[in-house]
Each structure stands twice: as C-alpha cells, then as structure tokens.
Design goal:
76% of the residues lie in helices and 0% in strands. It is an all-alpha fold and 135 residues long. Helix 3 runs antiparallel to helix 4. It is globular and about 50 Å long.
Length: 135
Amino acid sequence: RASSPPSFQSQVNAAVDICRSLSSDAMGKALREDSSTELHELIEDQGDIIFDLIRPRLKDLTLSDEERRDYVAMLQDLHDLTQALFDCNQALSKSPEDEDVCKEAADAVAEVDDCLDQISILTDLIADVAEPKQK
C-alpha cells in the first residue's frame, strides 16, 4: 500500500500543533516538576523539526535578504521562546502562588503561540508557491 508522504504543509502544521499543545501542557504540569524537562525536550524537538522543514524551503519564496533574515530569526525565536517558557515553568513549579510568576508564564505561552501563528502563515506561503493550488 503506497501512500504519498505527508506534504510539507501537513508536516509543519503537525509539529506546530504539537508545540502548541505542549506549551499549554507545560504550564499545567509545572506543578509536577518531574515531567517538565521531558516536555521541554519534546517542544525543542518539534521546534527543530519546524526549523529543518522550513529553512531549506525559504528559497522557494521570492524574498529580499532582509525578509529571509527575518524569517530565519523567527524560526530561531521559537527556540528562544520555548527556552523562556521552560524557565517560567521552573519558576512556576517553585512558587505557584506568585502572581508575577504566573503572569510571566502566561505571557510565555502566549508568545510561543504568536510565534507558531507566524510560522503557520509562513508555511502556507511556502506551500502555495511549492504546491500551487489546482485551479
């Protein structure tokens, strides 16, 4: 049974969805510290998959050098944001009652979400170029 490999778009979107659910899970599980490192590694792995999928495809888009740099920076941001998320997660597990810590953690999740939204938009752009829609 030959099945066509998943499209670029579906691979990236799958990784994005996993990141999204993990990042919100991470905060819920912060209170049970044991699982947070594992979660963080999972999120990082997905981030790496996204980076590796998208980075070589940027050449399919007609981009100025500046736009290309912005997109690569955005992909790298995801890594930094997941690190920030992990740091908040650690802080939250130590002081779950601290309002500032809770707010920072919520902000970190929101930032990861925003970054993932941007990546989804970029993915659609690349997919439109690479796999033109049948008219």
